[in-house]
Amino acid sequence: MKTVSLMALAVILSACSGPPNIEAGADPSDAGVQVPVARYAPVMSGTVDYRPVDPKSWIERNEQVAPKKRGE
């Protein structure tokens, strides 16, 4: 019974303490902190055009993926 009351007292007292200070970088209120320059990047940069195109000749397609002959 004594250990249960001590545990309850420890839990109650730990709830009264504040959260620990977590510092993961520079203080946001410090005006002298160096920050990287924000660069503009267009939203559509690097996108691929997926519009329909005419099909290529199947002969050309097969020649592109076929194993090369020994003389070539």
Automatic annotation (TrEMBL):
Q: Which residues form the signal peptide?
A: 1-17
UniProt keyword terms in alphabetical order? Plasmid, Signal
Instruction: Kindly indicate whether the keyword Signal belongs to this entry.
Output: yes
What name has this protein been given in UniProt? Uncharacterized protein
Which organism was this protein described from? Ancylobacter polymorphus
State the taxonomy lineage.
Bacteria, Pseudomonadati, Pseudomonadota, Alphaproteobacteria, Hyphomicrobiales
